[in-house]
Amino acid sequence: MIGLYQSQRAMRAMRKAAIQRGVVAVLDLGTSKISCLVLRFDGTGRFAEAEGIGRMAGQAGFRVIGAATTRSRGVRFGEIEAMAETERAIRTALQAAQKMAGIRVDHVIACLAGGGPRSYGLAGEVEVIDDTVTEQDISRVLSACDLPEIGAGREVLHAQPVNFALDHRTGLIDPRGQIGHRLSTDMHMLTVDAVALQNLAHCIKRCDLELAGVASSAYVAGLSALVEDEQELGAACIDLGGGTAGVSIFLRKHMIYADSVRMGGDHVTSDISMGLQIPQGTAERIKTFHGGLVATGMDDRDMIAIGGDTGDFEHDRRRVSRAELIGIMRPRVEEILEEVRARLDAAGFDHLPSQQIVLTGGGSQIPGLDGLASRILGQRVRLGRPLRVHGLPQAATGPAFASAVGMCLFAANPQDEWWDFDLPLDRYPARSLRRAVRWFRDNW
Fold first, then answer.
1. Does 274 fall in a domain?
2. 169-173, long-range: CB within 8 Å, 24+ apart, which pairs?
3. 127-146 as b/e, with b when 16 or more CB fall inside 10 Å?
4. Band of the pLDDT at 311, cuts 50, 70, 90?
5. Is the pLDDT of residue 316 over 90?
6. For the chain, how many structural domains are there in total?
7. Which domain range does residue 180 map to?
8. pTM
9. Dihedral class, residue 188 (left if φ above 0, else alpha if ψ from -120 to 50, else beta)
10. Do 113 and 244 meet the contact criterion of CB atoms below 8 Å apart?
């Protein structure tokens, strides 16, 4: 546990140094595409908080000066499967973004869609030493949280205090400087498969880059696709990607739950490919231009030319009705949404004061998805686009770039996490500390 604590602190320090130098890259490592954005910071620090600029208005602190996207290779279910191919794809995207920015980038912050995320809610309570809450008290109450048995081969990706209570007052975001006697906290911890994380770190290292931070794709997609009121009152963000559907729930501007479904838009494409006996590329084109989920009487007569270049004239000039295409797509989309609903039910989403659901990601652009999702998930559903950030090219403003834009917000204005505080290390046995140091040495 302490291993990732140390490496996350090292990455946080590296990110701070990179931002002070003025340039950092963010990398969205998806199953269907790899996106790279190069950010330039204007040196305003944490967004001129003294001037009262809120977190969601914080884009003023940076500008996108380079952007590139390439087809993802070697990534499956949001995890690296073929190291050399993924390395080539990352280099391609990075070089194109650097060329547009006209500057070399050494530090990158990446997000991870796979790794089987699991959420835990922790609680801790301590006596305040001098009646006024200090940084040391925050450290003590975070280290007082009872750590769960997360299992072998898992690492902590996020550990954020989502609520503080001081004596009888709860709902405090930052109790530092306030007067009281008993301080308690609720912390949300997200763990992922250690191998997925190590493969990501190793791949970035092979690209001659320094890894300055890692985030969950579901988390950063929520940061960019949910508006401020939704983050405050309670909302779920469903990030429908190519290989996974990320689920994150926000309340009072903090992520309180995250999970992922190992199905996405690529599975819909595969169903079309098998159902119509056509190549994946053709299936993707037909899905993009003609796909849908709600058939009408017109769709029986709306014929789609499949095309092809097999040389078999009869095979290549086949046509299918749009109703037949919808009949192939709808069952798979329903299956994905049923899995998402199971995750939301397990999280107790129906107990939140507001139950808005926002669909984003490349897969959310299928016509009719919002209506079908509203029926299956049983809540109000809207389609979400990422927040506008300065300098973002028009081509990168669609739902498919929710994670990439969220990474910009995460890089520029990270929320407080466990490793931002000096935790007393006497709680950890020497054996785990040694193991941690070895893990840190091997991976960073």
1. yes
2. 171/252, 173/252, 173/253
3. ebeeeebeeebbbbbbbbbe
4. low
5. no
6. 2
7. 118-194
8. 0.86
9. beta
10. yes
